[in-house]
Each structure stands twice: as structure tokens, then as C-alpha cells.
Design goal:
The protein has nine helices and 23 strands. By secondary structure, it is α+β, with helices and mostly antiparallel strands. A hairpin with a 2-residue loop joins strand 4 and strand 5.
Length: 396
């Protein structure tokens, strides 16, 4: 069992919309796990269920071997960073950071617990007493001050502690929201698209900072995003969720290179993966036909059981080749962004669009005729109707 174990979670809103459909997941201690999916896929609902902000209809939530499915949010020792930061506008940055420690006497409860663990006998009164040494309110405040300053220094926001959220930038507000979660010393940190409100340049640098911070502290994070770049660059592992179902889990590059279904293949990649109608060749069951061309598959797999069924050939833009043989097409668009060249081709027989991405400087112009074929070692074939994987060169 993992550090975090989600077992067969289901959640329905009303009588119709199934936000989570039998989701199971294991997350290890110290792991940065990314949940990736489109809007409405169930990713935010999932972490809200872990936090206790939503109840599940069925299933179990286990953290550090504790079954917390029915615990109220305050007793789960889970910290959450929201998409809109959820800072108190009337409090300073310092007080926003300190708020989790002050609320409901959380710090005093921890000190009480530590005293019991040391065999001491705390008593109630004005403040708490650990053995014969009383803990005065001033000492509690000093402990809070020490922890706030430590987190602020770590996040490089010590110079704005006296300001209010409306007086700082979006990037600074993001760091304050992150600091308010980190000061909790929680078992798990849940983050709901925390960088989505930042501009592109700041988002890129903050990704690196957050990932480095997670490694330094060794904390466990479940990070929700619809941004594939965040998922591919930040996650130790990632899970792709769609229509309430966790459709694939794995290391980012493994999920990108070896998608289990057509949805995952199409959701990851920019430009998107090329999806071309194809079928098992009438000439050979070890070849597929697309755009009027028969492509012999590496390893000569027997696809006879799929004969007559509509299939999809999925080709990453970086794996498209112009060769001496292939499907005939016409170049319709050529553009360059720095060293990267994007070339769009319309297949002559089916009028489907195929995009090629390359760093090579090709002597090619709009209107040129080309022969298109995928790299044989990178081809994936899916069933068109149910989107399941039929064959992949990378999984042979």
C-alpha cells in the first residue's frame, strides 16, 4: 500500500453526473504526482475528496495507513493550495502565513502532543504547561514568528510580510498561498492549478522553483493541472483523468511515448498527435493502409482480427517523415519559430491534415508534393470507435 492509497472512489452529483468513477491510485511518500485532464474531467473533485471538502459515495481514502474517508477536513492533516489563492485580503502576508497556526489552536495541540511523547505531564491553565515550564502566550507567538520567517525566507518573500494581498503581484500571492500550506507541516499537499493565474514567463520559472522546493523538503504533493507542459516537466509520475476515470498512470515520458488509448495520445503533445484513418491492408495482415499507401509494420504483427474495422494511425509530428515512399500529399503551410519548423500537409486521397515538426532546414515550400510516412519505430494503431490500443511499435 502506498503512502496515499485511493481505493475505488466514486462521486456523483445529483442523479446523473458521475464526477469520479471507481478511481484507484497509489502515491508514494515524497512523490510529486500530477493529475492531468481537461476541464470537467474530475481532477479537482478528486483532490477535494482527499481534503475532505467533498464526500465520496463509495471507496476508501488512506493516508499514512490511516483511513480518513469520513474524517472532517481539520483532522486529516492535509494542506491545500487553491487556484485563486484564497488569501484573506484584510490580513497582511505575515498574518496570512500565520493563520493556519493560530486557527483552532493547532500549534498548541502539537506542543501538547510533543509533551506527551516525551513523558511529561501538561496541564491546562493560562496557556499550557510542559512539566514545570509554563508556555506563555508570548512563547507561542515567538514559535509562530520563527516558523513564518523560516517559510518566508525559503520562498523569498521576507520583504513583503507587512503588505496585504492587494499590494503584491500575482507571483508573490502565489508564493504566499504556497507558504500558507507549507507552514502546516502536513502529511500531503494538494495543489489545484496554482500557477494558472501567472503569466507565461513567471509560470515557467515558478515551476522550477516549486519542483526544487518539493525535492528539498521531501514533501508529498498531488498537483492538479490541465497544462501538459506542467505535467511533463514537474511530475515524478502523472495520471491522466477523463470523464471521472483514471485512464493511465506512469512516468511522464512513458505516458507521452506509450499512450494506452487514443484520448491520452491526443491530449498530450503540442502540436497534437496526428490521427489518420487507416485499416488493415487487404494485401497483408501485417500492414496497415492509410492515404492510399500500405505501411508494413515492424515485427510483422498479425492484425487479422481487426480486418474490416475502422482504425486510427497515430503519429507524433516529430515522427513524421518525408521519404521516397509513402502517402501522397501536398504542403499547405510552412512556418518557423526559431529553429523549429512546422510543415502542414494534406493527404491527397483522404484530405486529412498531417503536421511535421523538425529542426532541419528543409528546402520545401507551399504547394510542393511530398510522400508522408511515420517512423516505423514510433507508429501506434488504435481502434477508432472505442479508442483502445491495437498495436504499438514501442511496446513490442
Amino acid at each position: 500500500m502506498g503512502y496515499i492509497s485511493l481505493q475505488n472512489l466514486s462521486k456523483t452529483y445529483g442523479n446523473k453526473f458521475k464526477a469520479l468513477d471507481n478511481v484507484s491510485l497509489e502515491v508514494e511518500q515524497g512523490e510529486f504526482f500530477v493529475l492531468l485532464g481537461p476541464s470537467g474531467s474530475g481532477k479537482t473533485t478528486l483532490i477535494r475528496c482527499i481534503a475532505g471538502l467533498e464526500t465520496v459515495d463509495s471507496g476508501k481514502i488512506i493516508v499514512k495507513n490511516r483511513l480518513i474517508t469520513d474524517y472532517p477536513p481539520g483532522e486529516r492533516n492535509v494542506a491545500m493550495v487553491f487556484q485563486n489563492y484564497a488569501l484573506y485580503p484584510f490580513l497582511t502576508v505575515y498574518d496570512n502565513l500565520a493563520f493556519p497556526l493560530k486557527a483552532r489552536g493547532r500549534l498548541r495541540k502539537r506542543l501538547w502532543s510533543e509533551a506527551l511523547g516525551q513523558g511529561k505531564a501538561p496541564t491546562t491553565g493560562i496557556g499550557y504547561q510542559l512539566g514545570i515550564n509554563p508556555i506563555k502566550p508570548t512563547e507561542v507567538k515567538e514559535n509562530i514568528r520563527e516558523r513564518v520567517n523560516r517559510v518566508a525566507e525559503m520562498l523569498q518573500i521576507t520583504d513583503i510580510l507587512d503588505r496585504k494581498p492587494g499590494q503584491i503581484s500575482g507571483g508573490q500571492r502565489q508564493r504566499v498561498a504556497l507558504g500558507r500550506a507549507l507552514i502546516r507541516e502536513a502529511d500531503v499537499y494538494l495543489m489545484d492549478e496554482p500557477l494558472s493565474n501567472l503569466d507565461a514567463k513567471l509560470r515557467s520559472s515558478t515551476r522550477i522553483e516549486l519542483k526544487n522546493l518539493q525535492k528539498k523538503l521531501g514533501i508529498t504533493i498531488i498537483y492538479v493541472t490541465h497544462d501538459q507542459i506542467e505535467a511533463l516537466t514537474m511530475g515524478d509520475r502523472m495520471g491522466v483523468i477523463n470523464k471521472g476515470q483514471l485512464v493511465q498512470v506512469g512516468k511522464p515520458l512513458d505516458v507521452y511515448n506509450m499512450p494506452d488509448n487514443l484520448f491520452v495520445a491526443g491530449f498530450l503533445g503540442d502540436p497534437p498527435i496526428n490521427q489518420v484513418d487507416c485499416s488493415v491492408s487487404e494485401r497483408s495482415s501485417t500492414a496497415i493502409s492509410f492515404g492510399g499507401y500500405d505501411l508494413e509494420l515492424p515485427g510483422k504483427p498479425d492484425l487479422s482480427s481487426h480486418s474490416g474495422k475502422p482504425l486510427k494511425l497515430a503519429i507524433r509530428p516529430e515522427d513524421v517523415e518525408f521519404a521516397d515512399s509513402g502517402a501522397k500529399g501536398t504542403v499547405t503551410f510552412v512556418r518557423s519559430i526559431g529553429r523549429i519548423n512546422y510543415i502542414s500537409v494534406v493527404l491527397s486521397e483522404t484530405e486529412e491534415m498531417v503536421t511535421k515538426v523538425t529542426t532541419e532546414q528543409l528546402a520545401i515550400s507551399e504547394g510542393d508534393s511530398v510522400l508522408v510516412t511515420p517512423k516505423a519505430s514510433s507508429a501506434d494503431v488504435f481502434e477508432r470507435d472505442n479508442e483502445t490500443l491495437v498495436w504499438s511499435a514501442k511496446k513490442q
